[in-house]
């Protein structure tokens, strides 16, 4: 059996993280609480997060069009110059 250490500071392996995920861990905070991952130097945080399940909403991301037009809001505090009739 080959062990891949994810967190050297706390001697946490990928197998331990996968077991924690199988038992319900779904965030880095869960892994920090359960195993002590990324609580010292933090260099392992990204590698540990790669072993977490991908949230369902990330499978369905869509681009949203952003327009450059600017409409004045009813509560806009910026004053508009008044036109004075001559």
Ends apart, CA distance between termini: 90 Å
Radius of gyration: 25 Å
Gross morphology: elongated
Secondary-structure element sequence?
Answer: EEHHH
Mean pLDDT, all residues: 80
Strand order of the largest sheet: 1-2
Point out poorly predicted stretches. none
Determine the fraction of residues in helical runs and give it as a percent range: 25-40%
CATH superfamily of the domain at 12-56: BFD-like [2Fe-2S]-binding domain
Task: Walk me through this protein's architecture.
The chain is mainly α. It has a domain of 45 residues: BFD-like [2Fe-2S]-binding domain (Arc Repressor Mutant, subunit A, Orthogonal Bundle). It has three helices and two strands, in the order E-E-H-H-H. Strands 1-2 form a two-stranded antiparallel sheet. A hairpin with a 4-residue loop joins strand 1 and strand 2. InterPro entries: BFD-associated_ferredoxin (IPR052371), BFD-like_2Fe2S-bd_dom (IPR007419), BFD-like_2Fe2S-bd_dom_sf (IPR041854).
Brief characterization of the structure:
The protein has 86 residues and is mainly α. It contains three helices and two strands, in the order E-E-H-H-H.
Essential attributes:
iron, BFD-like_2Fe2S-bd_dom, mainly alpha, 86 residues, single chain, Arc Repressor Mutant, subunit A, BFD-associated_ferredoxin
Walk me through the topology.
Layout: E1 5-7, E2 12-13, H1 14-22, H2 28-35, H3 45-50
InterPro entries: BFD-associated_ferredoxin (IPR052371), BFD-like_2Fe2S-bd_dom (IPR007419), BFD-like_2Fe2S-bd_dom_sf (IPR041854)
Organism: Paenalcaligenes hermetiae
Keywords: 2Fe-2S, Electron transport, Iron, Iron-sulfur, Metal-binding, Transport
